[in-house]
Amino acid sequence: MNFVVVGVQWGDEGKGKLIDFLSDKVDITVRYQGGNNAGHTVVVNEEEYIFHLLPSAILHQQKVCVIGNGVVIDPRALIQEIRDLKKRRISVKTNQLKISGNAHVVMPYHRILDGLRESKRYNKIGTTGRGIGPCYADKINRCGIRMIDLMNARVFQSKLEDNLREKNEIFKKVFRHPEYSFEDIYHEYLRFGKILKPYVCDTALYLNDMIDQKKTVLFEGAQGTFLDIDFGTYPFVTSSNSTVGGVCPGSGVAPTKIDKAIAVVKAYTTRVGEGPFPTEFPAKFMDTFRLKGKEFGATTGRARRCGWFDSVLVRYALMINGVSELAIMKLDVLDGMKKIKICTSYKYRGRVVKDFPSDFDVLRRAKPVYEEMDGWDAPSKGVKTFHDLPLKAKMYVRRLEDLLKVRIGYISTGSKRDETIVLPEA
Ligand code: IMO
Ligand code: MG
Fold it and tell me: What crossing angle do the helices spanning 182-196 and 153-173 adopt, rounded to 10°?
């Protein structure tokens, strides 16, 4: 059984926790898109780990983690992540981590360009500033540098020279920013290449070989459906396909070998960065809720915008990803609320809109239509079986299941591994 775990909101749904939980049952976990814009939090025995490039299964040392060709890798950040784990006495062995030689490298000029472009934009995206957009743009422009290039001094030299010729003109003429010196980047990145070389291989070959040997593979999505470059709230999106479709080009595994998709949602909605968000809370309520849910970005520390559950949005995402099972995370954050709202449709210019409008302007002006439910007075925090949930919490979950027409397989009631409810298939 090979399956994908994807976020079906705006990222930060709790994919890290679910993947750590599920990876116990699989042999290999694969990241297939995004870069260190992701921040996946895993809590084990009161200890918190945040992964940006390493797959969230890395704490299971008997399992293999793969960074596929669709990921963009900032080698400095990756090496730092591996070193940080080592300081916590977890060493990432070369048989435990495999990195695609075809993955593109985030270069220092990508990070700077990310910030400079943002500063000039009238409609700011609110990127993570990690150079993700400019790196993917170079990939598509066919001038990107790949991991394998860092391992060949001659090839790297010529590609870097080509890039700097163009980038330095842009820095100078468009942004009046100091130019980059070839020497600074060249030697440092060759060194990064040397450090990471033992992990680098043809991961497409490896994965298909393992699948032929009946090993099970979990594909770990980063970001979420509405940050997808094609299906998200463009232009307020990231630069990769964070939906299930990204798996094939991002890993080299064919769609015929993928058995199912599990979607991850929060019991409410959050978004970091700019862009439309119909169910966003009013400012007054936002601050208290954010503190309760600890809704601050795992990557940038930015305050996340919070709002009610939007079933219009999620229903569309379930369709795009062909989801057969849903995980609801952070249900406990709703503990103690008197009333809880679910958005069931939008109103736009007097019309009822039932399907997610891809027209950004409609989404921006759409007013959510809510269904209100009673909150629950007993805590759901730490509850381990569906049976033990407070009645009203069960009703909330069942209502979401009804509205979304998908089976709920997991409910998270806290950040720890065992604060998870598994619902057996009927
Ligand atoms: P995980 O994997 C939430 C958002 C940024 C910004 C937009 C574009 O933890 O769910 P980028 O740096 O990618 O060009 O920024 O996408 N964003 C995320 N929001 N969770 C993430 O990852 C995100 N990765 C990018 O805030 O709005
Ligand atoms: Mg995150």
Answer: 140
